[in-house]
């Protein structure tokens, strides 16, 4: 296995959001996996969490509030939820 060092950003570099697809998982897994994923990224990183768990609309905002992250947006489209979180 080879590990590649990250390349330095160029002047026209556009950062990409981290997308976490948690569709099909039930409470409490979306919050637990979101917490774990956020622990692996730098402060200020924007993460998009996709879920189908209806409890996520209560759990993820509560989690962000408790851990100091910013819930930038939450959207619901049928059974699908999409949360944009900025890590504290």
TrEMBL record:
Residues 69-88 are annotated as: Disordered. It comes from the Bacteria. Coiled coil: none annotated. PROSITE patterns: UPF0033. Residues 20-44 form the UPF0033 domain. PANTHER family: SULFUR CARRIER PROTEIN YEDF-RELATED. This is Sulfurtransferase TusA family protein. It comes from Roseibium polysiphoniae.
């Amino acid at each position: 296995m080879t590990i590649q060092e990250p390349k330095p950003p160029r002047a026209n570099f556009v950062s990409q959001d981290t997308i976490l697809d948690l569709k099909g998982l039930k409470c409490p897994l979306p919050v637990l996996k979101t917490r774990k994923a956020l622990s692996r990224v730098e402060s200020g990183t924007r993460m998009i969490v996709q879920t189908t768990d209806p409890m996520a609309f209560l759990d993820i905002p509560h989690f962000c509030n408790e851990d100091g992250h910013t819930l930038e947006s939450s959207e619901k489209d049928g059974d699908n939820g999409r949360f944009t979180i900025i890590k504290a």
